[in-house]
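input
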Amino acid sequence: MFITDLDGTLFTDDKQINPIDLRALERLGEMGFIRVFATGRSLYSFQKAVERMGFDSSCEELPVDYLICSTGACIIKLERKHGIKMRGNIINRKENIIQKHSLESGDVSHIADYFDSLKLDYMIHRPVPYSHHCIYREQSRMPNPDFILRIEIYKDFITKINHSEPIKDFGQATELLTIIPAEIFAQHGNNTVTMIEEALPEFSVVRATSPLDGKSVWIEVFNRMVSKSQAISWLADQLKIQKENVAAIGNDYNDLDMLERAGHVFIVNNAPKELKDKVSDKREFAEVGSNNNCGVSEAINILLQR
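output
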């Protein structure tokens, strides 16, 4: 099984997939490998990304068998004849979802109350497959252009909530997301991540670099069962694939647990040094070219030579 992250790994900086990488993934399929895309993107965001690349929304043209989206909150089986189908913006083939995890209503209220106490800007996303529908609270005194940009992207599906109203009876949610501007994170961001992790130990707290501006830091809070590594472990168990037969490639902090789970580890050279250092002691580790220089196909070539 070969797993690749998308933004900053398979996707180039201009949000395309190099034809060389596509062909390498096709070759893996011809050789009987299971190919998995593992992304922090929601299903909606993934769908829009591939449509902008010129692929059909069914995803039948993509050389991939499974999609892990929302950092592991959802696993989709992509069938060649019955892929993800959309009518407008509504996904109508829910049977393709083979696993998903959500936060319960009480969890949503608890996390929102904590974010409110810190005066953070945040969004709450509905459960999969409708996780592009969300509400948001904007309350930080700091400029947060990446947060504003995300509001604009989801303008057809997003509702602003009053500053003073506590979040009650929202129902289930995929996640709560707060965005910290790069300059603020540079000052005391790591402390903020640690503080949130310690305050919310019963949940999965995931740090990621913004796929929008490439600088701001997203901190996402999910059901404790949500992570790329847990999704991969579940899928590998279902397919009876041993750890030593799992290869993964990534570029960002939300890929770390996925890379630690894999038997063969690849990291693109545009990844942060801190991330490279954390996985460089893995026996089956290799640093490959950047997302703009066919790092995925280079990783596949190395893997096939082992």
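quick obs: The longest strand covers residues 175-180.
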